[in-house]
């Protein structure tokens, strides 16, 4: 059985440890997955609001958002349709910066993120704090392309990428969880790729 063990060992080490179970590496390409038609949102019309269970509802326009201290996140992203994109990078701000301005009430447990198209996705508040989630406007040094959510999208890289809503306009703090667009259509409420939480019941 030493032969079998050696064979299994080689196979295991050949698989990139950055790939969660059931995922493959798309390399340098970046697939587009969009349920609605791609909107055109000029930066003059762009607004992002944090509302709901907060002490103060706050809205940023493009200039106000871009005046916040930007930083870069680098790592891997994972789509539920089994592609992963490894070692990519985005520029923006941690969601914490926006939440610090709006001050979530102690009762807030979840967020609902809404796109200007009406797409929604729900997340536990714990998954969007402590620099785990980002609001981004650049990808690898270039303005975020329209089909990838430009001018501004959410980035929650530790969860499946359907949680990373494109064209975001609103982050609503909530005292309870409620399914967003894909979650109402059978996807998991949390979506941890390392636990393969693809569908409701996984
Ligand atoms: N507004 C909006 N955001 C969205 C989606 C969408 O259809 N509409 N698709 C989600 C899914 S399923 C994935 S995998 C990623 C795809 O992002 P990309 O097209 O930039 O790769 O966006 C997520 N955010
Ligand atoms: Mo996806």
Automatic annotation (TrEMBL):
What does UniProt list as this organism's lineage? Bacteria, Bacillati, Actinomycetota, Actinomycetes, Pseudonocardiales
The UniProt entry, under Pfam families, shows: Oxidored_molyb
Which InterPro entries did the record assign?
A: OxRdtase_Mopterin-bd_dom, OxRdtase_Mopterin-bd_sf
Q: What ranges does the record give for the region Disordered, renumbered to this chain?
A: 1-21
User: Under what name is this protein listed?
Assistant: Oxidoreductase molybdopterin binding protein
Oxidoreductase molybdopterin-binding domain ranges (all copies): 37-182
- Organism for this UniProt entry: Pseudonocardia dioxanivorans (strain ATCC 55486 / DSM 44775 / JCM 13855 / CB1190)
Instruction: Report which residue ranges the record marks as coiled coil.
Output: none
